[in-house]
Amino acid sequence: MEAPPPFASSSSSSLFSLRNKPLSSPTITHFGNTKPSKSFSVRASSSRDSVVTLLDYGAGNVRSVRNAIRFLGFEIKDVQTPQDILNASRLVFPGVGAFAAAMEVLSKTGMDEALCSYIDKDRPFLGICLGLQLLFESSEENGPVKGLGLIPGTVGRFDSSNGFRVPHIGWNALQITEDSGILDDVGNHHVYFVHSYRAMPSDDNNEWISSTCDYGDKFIASIRRGNVHAVQFHPEKSGGKFYLPFQSLVLSNILNPKHEGCNLC
Amino acid sequence: MTETLTEKGCWPLYFGKILESKVKHGKEAWGRQSFKTCKKGNSHGNPLVIACLDVRTNDKGDLVVTKGDQYDVREHTKENEVRNLGKPVDLAGQYYKDGADEVSFLNITGFRDFPLGDLPMLQVLRYTSENVFVPLTVGGGIRDFTDSTGRYYSSLEVASEYFRSGADKISIGSDAVYAAEEYLKTGVKTGKTSLEQISRVYGNQAVVVSIDPRRVYVKDPNDVQLKTIRVSSPGSNGEEYAWYQCTVNGGREGRPIGAYELAKAVEELGAGEILLNCIDCDGQGKGFDVDLIKLISDAVSIPVIASSGAGAPEHFSEVFYKTNASAALAAGIFHRKEVPIQSVKEHLLKEGIEVRI
């Protein structure tokens, strides 16, 4: 067996326990990843500047996001209760899976209200992929299904009738429409998308949009309001030769918020 | 320029050159707009170059990367050992650094050894995903099974374990063939096939169907009920037509269904992508089977990944020009360092095909 790669993060050891996790009955709707050990929780709260709170409702590969966050030198605290969201100093929400299933889990656990409250307070937030879509009013994915309703608009399916293949899988450039901070270093670099549904720009949501991308239609690639950011692409998968600095920036700018007057920072 | 590209330190220069093109084309040079100005204009997206690792245990039980010749992975020596082309995690890391847009693992012992017991493959995924920040696909052995202790695992549970270990997508081979056959026979989507279950839970984009077809020449298209095409190079008896027979179990068993029929059926069943191999071209290095790839990429509206036969950078531009493939995959030429990934991308850019650099 190979030795662990040389630049693996040395922190958050408890999360690495996943590696040795026995193959117990795999449930796919569990909340959070596994139970973080007590020692981890204590350590995390004692060094909150290096802690990222992660909302993982267990419906897909969040390991890459974990790995990317750890790669940047942060520890991860998994959300177990809605209070964990409210207590977070920076929250990453890498939505994966289907819209309806995600909303169901969020509302069943009361995370939906906590999320809305957290975002309303302009606390540092990064949503990824479905984590962006869920902020909108509704989605057509197996729906209509109601979303968190923070951003005006409906998430719809790409139109494949004009020859564009759906899902949209691949690397595309962004058209950055607003200085977003987190996109500073993206420039003309391509970022990785994988999705069948997307939110479209409109007069109602225009003020939220920080970048768009063209794939048949012009769709919303990222949003920003204050400290709240969300991206349709996958920064954790947009690695590549030039993307480590970009990636650090995307995550680090979010993770190291420089907002004034915040007593959390 | 060309010569210096692969030398250390020259990438930024090259990158600068790309940036200049932005100025030339204006604001949207890197979006769809610029793509219309490219010679290649029919794939509606930037083509991907995917590096694939065929992983299996060798006779000593170590997980190694190997590569077959028409699916035969053993050396033709007295020992008849499995070809060893290095360790999977290291090689995946190298491909990532070299600019692969995705990395794909094919566990080619999957159909014999049940995957949940196949801990080394899960370990490979875990370690790889720590440092490789491009999408990872894993295939091989994703199906329902009962282990030696009598415990039943659904294919969904198997896939879940792969996803939890760091896979972004899983690919299904044999199981998808059986599912498509059943669906075409009954016209009913049971919702119980691995393909349907996994795509329902993880989304279509997480499920790739891997097709392993073999060319079957026919004199007359009416000789078979299946979709035939006129092929560019006739068969040994002068046959001008062929259909592409799907196989299962690593190409060992042919099934009564063609790649065309399979592709359309699995798209309906929820596949998000098709990985299109061709046994005749595998390991030959003579180029992709353009006839087959054109047939399939025109038949479905999900992305098609061209595979089998890449031997030179020109084969990549050829497949992107002549077909609607969204991606092209190679294993052997990257493993053996015959053609570096950078050279492929550099060639594509030179040909006016926009790729990520």
UniProtKB/TrEMBL annotation, chain A:
Keywords: Amino-acid biosynthesis, Glutamine amidotransferase, Histidine biosynthesis, Hydrolase, Lyase. One of its GO terms (molecular function) is glutaminase activity. GO terms for biological process: L-histidine biosynthetic process. This is Imidazole glycerol phosphate synthase hisHF, chloroplastic. InterPro entries: Class_I_gatase-like, GATASE, Imidazole-glycPsynth_HisH. Pfam families: GATase (PF00117). PANTHER family: IMIDAZOLE GLYCEROL PHOSPHATE SYNTHASE SUBUNIT HISH. The keyword Transit peptide does not apply. It comes from Glycine soja (Wild soybean). The keyword Zinc-finger does not apply. Heterodimer of HisH and HisF.
Automatic annotation (TrEMBL), chain B:
GO terms for molecular function: glutaminase activity; imidazoleglycerol-phosphate synthase activity; lyase activity. CDD domains: HisF. Keywords: Amino-acid biosynthesis, Glutamine amidotransferase, Histidine biosynthesis, Hydrolase, Lyase, Multifunctional enzyme. PANTHER family: IMIDAZOLE GLYCEROL PHOSPHATE SYNTHASE HISHF, IMIDAZOLE GLYCEROL PHOSPHATE SYNTHASE SUBUNIT HISF/H IGP SYNTHASE SUBUNIT HISF/H. In the C-terminal section; belongs to the HisA/HisF family. Belongs to the HisA/HisF family. This is Imidazole glycerol phosphate synthase hisHF, chloroplastic isoform A. IGPS catalyzes the conversion of PRFAR and glutamine to IGP, AICAR and glutamate. The glutaminase domain produces the ammonia necessary for the cyclase domain to produce IGP and AICAR from PRFAR. The ammonia is channeled to the active site of the cyclase domain. GO terms for biological process: L-histidine biosynthetic process. The keyword ATP-binding does not apply. Pathway: Amino-acid biosynthesis; L-histidine biosynthesis; L-histidine from 5-phospho-alpha-D-ribose 1-diphosphate: step 5/9. SUPFAM superfamilies: Ribulose-phoshate binding barrel (SSF51366). It catalyses: L-glutamine + H2O = L-glutamate + NH4(+); 5-[(5-phospho-1-deoxy-D-ribulos-1-ylimino)methylamino]-1-(5-phospho-beta-D-ribosyl)imidazole-4-carboxamide + L-glutamine = D-erythro-1-(imidazol-4-yl)glycerol 3-phosphate + 5-amino-1-(5-phospho-beta-D-ribosyl)imidazole-4-carboxamide + L-glutamate + H(+).
